[in-house]
Design a protein that fits this description.
The complex is a heterodimer.
Chain A lengths: L7 H20 L5 H28 L2 H21 L3 E3 L3 H24 L9 H32 L1 H9 L4 H26 L7 H8 L4 H33 L12 E3 L1
Antiparallel strand pairs in A: 1-2
Helix pairs in contact in A: 1-2, 3-4, 3-5, 4-5, 4-9, 5-7, 5-9, 6-7, 7-9, 8-9
Chain B lengths: L1 E3 L6 H8 L10 E2 L2 E2 L5 H7 E4 L19 H10 L16 H13 L5 E5 L7 H16 L3 E5 L5 H4 L4 E5 L2 E4 L1
Parallel strand pairs in B: 1-6, 1-7, 4-5, 5-6
Antiparallel strand pairs in B: 2-3, 7-8
Classes of the chains: A mainly alpha, B alpha/beta.
Chain lengths: 265, 174
């Protein structure tokens, strides 16, 4: 089955729904029509630009260009992770933690998938590498930022408990183990929910897209299963790396709890 | 040794620095051994700091007492006027006085060489204060090194402690 290709007219027709939204906003005095218009325009422009870039990169099929694009995507993801927690590690600590967690976890997962399961020729074919990196980065970003936020938030709240253990002679690792475990769990929970709800509550986006694009449903399902495994692996890895690195940055050679290195974000 | 002084003068910070819980310059010795020669957790296991506001890392009281310490903890609890079932209850149910005494027990059962106590009887009634002081006096006689920060003017004399005063971050004679 061939995908039904969309024409600009099709898109214009669907944009009528947005006009309806705007009309509702005016009629009900929601005050949202301006924001709605700006958001819609941004979405269209951003996606068109991405489409153009992707086409260029796919046509060029150059490993260097693919790598550059992936690095740009990873940098943006790392900045997001670093910016989200309420508490921040000073001296670019958050950025270092987020960058290592996001880049490390995503790279490992993407390369693993491209060299074992999907195996395009060559393995760095941008048609596979770029979208795969995109979706994995998105998930890894989520997991790492949740885990980091949970750790930094809880260490501030539970300072007395951590220091009580330190004062009794526990190592910093022992004193932090409970909080680190909770933070890693916090990072991994959304993936577990996503896996158990997949197909029942929502049809996952990738699968929906592939079915709409004409792929046989079973093939789309297989892709989705592979992706879920990759996302789970990448997310877990990112949570663990982010938490372990942040724990290291919260202490010093005398194994103290150094909350003075945190500042409100 | 007892340290008195206005709130905010730096008593707690001093105790925390001796325990190596806050960054500090200077050196401390235990039986002639410098702190710098010991790993920090080892030092803190031998020189235990008890904060004025005790921290608890598990919802259950029992988790704060390793198995090998439970008998000793129960005995001390009795001497400090606490019932034994408090050792198996939840931390959230404890009163502040119970918490303070249990935190002291938690430190005592580990048999430290030195104890740094930050207002150890601040939340206690006079009868409990006397019980805590009796236990501390006994440990002092057995060779415990005790440094305490206190607002109780009679406490240093009752414990036979040398008195020092902290004024704006400086330790001086009373």
């Amino acid at each position: 089955m061939n995908p039904i290709l969309l024409t600009p007219r099709d898109l214009a027709v669907s944009a009528l729904l947005l006009v309806l939204d705007a009309a509702l906003s005016v009629a009900l005095r929601l005050g949202l029509h301006r924001q709605l218009g700006v958001a819609a325009a941004r979405m269209v422009i951003q996606l068109l630009v991405v489409g153009v870039i992707l086409r260029r990169v796919f046509d060029a099929a150059s490993p260097a260009l693919t790598l550059l694009l992936v690095i740009v995507m990873a940098t943006i993801a790392a900045r997001e992770v670093a910016a989200r927690p309420e508490q921040r590690l000073g001296r670019f600590g958050n950025l270092a933690v987020a960058g290592s967690a996001v880049a490390g976890a995503a790279c490992l997962t993407v390369v693993f998938a491209l060299t074992t399961a999907i195996r395009p020729m060559p393995w760095y074919d941008p048609r596979y590498a770029v979208p795969l990196a995109g979706i994995i980065l998105g998930n890894v970003l989520n997991a790492a930022s949740l885990a980091l936020d949970a750790l930094l938030g809880s260490v501030v709240r539970e300072r007395a408990a951590v220091e009580a253990r330190l004062a009794l002679g526990a190592s910093f690792g022992t004193a932090m183990a409970r909080l680190a475990r909770q933070a890693i769990r916090r990072g991994m929970l959304p993936m577990i929910n996503q896996m158990s709800a997949a197909g029942l509550v929502t049809l996952p986006g990738i699968m929906t897209g592939q079915i709409l694009a004409g792929l046989e449903p079973m093939e789309a399902v297989k892709y989705q299963i592979l992706l879920m495994f990759l996302l789970a692996g990448g997310g877990a890895l990112a949570s663990v790396v982010a938490v372990l690195l942040a724990v290291r940055l919260l202490t010093d050679p005398r194994q103290r709890l150094r909350l003075d290195r945190l500042r409100p974000g | 040794m007892a340290i008195s002084g206005a709130s905010g003068a730096g008593k707690s910070l001093f105790l925390r620095m001796v325990a190596d819980l806050d960054p500090n310059e200077g050196e401390a010795w235990l039986d002639g051994q410098p702190r710098a020669a010991m790993r920090a957790p080892e030092w803190r296991a031998r020189v235990i700091y008890c904060a004025a506001e005790s921290g608890w890392w598990d919802p259950g009281v029992g988790a704060h007492f390793p198995l090998g310490h439970r008998v000793a903890a129960a005995a001390l609890a009795g001497r400090l006027g606490l019932t034994a079932d408090l050792l198996t209850t939840e931390v959230a149910r404890l009163s502040s006085g119970e918490r303070q005494r249990l935190a002291l027990i938690r430190a005592l059962v580990r048999r430290p060489a030195a104890l740094l106590l930050d207002e150890p009887t601040g939340a206690l009634d006079p009868a409990s204060v006397a019980r805590v002081e009796a236990v501390l006096t006994e440990r002092l006689a057995a060779g415990l090194v005790l440094v305490l920060a206190t607002h109780d003017p009679g406490q240093p004399a009752r414990l036979g402690a040398r008195q020092l005063v902290m004024r704006a971050g400086r330790l001086g004679p009373a």
